[in-house]
Amino acid sequence: xxxxxxxxxxxxxxxxxxxxxxxxxxxxxxxxxxxxxxxxxxxxxxxxxxxxxxxxxxxxxxxxxxxxxxxxxxxxxxxxxxxxxxxxxxxxxxxxxxxxxxxxxxxxxxxxxxxxxxxxxxxxxxxxxxx
Length: 131
Known about the structure:
Elements: E1 4-9, H1 14-29, E2 33-38, H2 63-69, H3 75-84, E3 88-92, H4 93-99, E4 111-113, H5 115-122, E5 128-130
Parallel strand pairs: 1-2, 1-5, 2-3, 3-4
Helix pairs in contact: 1-3
C-alpha cells in the first residue's frame, strides 16, 4: 500500500476547506506523505485574504456556532497545521495565470506548478481525493 495521499482542491467554500484540511492533516499526522493541488476556486483555501472569508453553504449558517462551540480550528489555523505537518501545497500555475494571481497572493511555502507536477506525485498515491 502507498504511503502517499493526493488531494485535489478545486472548490473554495468553507465546507470544502474543512474536508481538504481535515483529511490532509489526519493523513500527515499518521506519517503519510501528502500533497494538495489547489486549482480554480480551490485556490481560495490558501489565498492570504480569501481564506479568511470562505462562504458557508446557504442554509448552513447554524454550523458557525457549532464550529465555535466544538473549538474547531479556523481555516488559517488548519493551513498552518497542515504546513507544520509537512503537507505540500501546489498552486495551479494555469489557474493563477487565468485569474491574474502571483505566488505573493498566497500563504508562504507553496509550490507553483501545473497538473503534471501533481500527477507525478499522485500516480502511485492511495488514495487520491477530490474536493
